[in-house]
Amino acid sequence: MDITTRALVLRATDYKENDMMVLLYSLEHGKISVHARGVRKSSAKLKFATDQFCFGHYELAETKGYYTLKTCQQLESFFALREDVVCYYSANCIAEALIKLTAEGQSDSALFVEVLRALQNLCDNVDPLLVTLRFLLGFLQSAGFKLDFSQCSVCGKKQQPLFLDVQHGGVVCDTCCSEMAVSISPRVVSACTMVASIGYDKLKNIKLSKEICKEALNLVSRYISHSFVPLNSLAELAKLA
Ligand SMILES: [Zn+2]
Known about the structure:
Elements: E1 2-15, E2 19-26, E3 30-36, E4 55-63, E5 66-76, H1 85-101, H2 109-123, H3 128-142, E6 162-165, E7 170-173, E8 182-184, H4 186-197, H5 210-227, H6 232-240
Parallel strand pairs: 3-5
Antiparallel strand pairs: 1-2, 1-4, 2-3, 4-5, 6-7, 6-8
Helix pairs in contact: 1-2, 1-3, 1-6, 2-3, 3-5, 4-5
This protein binds zinc ion (ZN).
């Protein structure tokens, strides 16, 4: 049986002599591993369909849950992501979050749209740190792990100072925090609250200093590391920017 799906390449790795294994993030089926035959030959017409962040209409042949690439009609190459190293790492944070933190075969159309919007913002020269922060805060919310800065996750007190407490798995107040908690500065609380509430179309109008963005990303990184698994590109991004 053949399927057609709109999908984005998250990762591609060499396989056998001339082939590649491509991990797609698709609108209709979530993550799918696809065997792309012969794409490393110099004459290969479908080489472009295995480039990371290629977005297109993919036609796949399916046999017993095993997918092979038939054709691809490219809708967007997102080529500009490769022209700036910080931008590239930011896009990789998005890809790594999808690779590590979403289940294979599980589709999420709202998240799919958010991914495309985030990548488009990166291509449009919006601050990569800001785009990464917006994406990860939205991603956590849609996954049911929203970082809620409006109140203490234990007692409900709506007052700063606030702390990130991995023992409680979220944001807590000064009364509820354990010795493992790290304080969250008021400027990070307001930055994250604002960024999380804004649409991707308005992101270019936001001005946040690099220091605040990095501080906010470090907080999100700590939270994701403890709640799920660490995102290596996020650490790289913070070092590079
Ligand atoms: Zn509390």
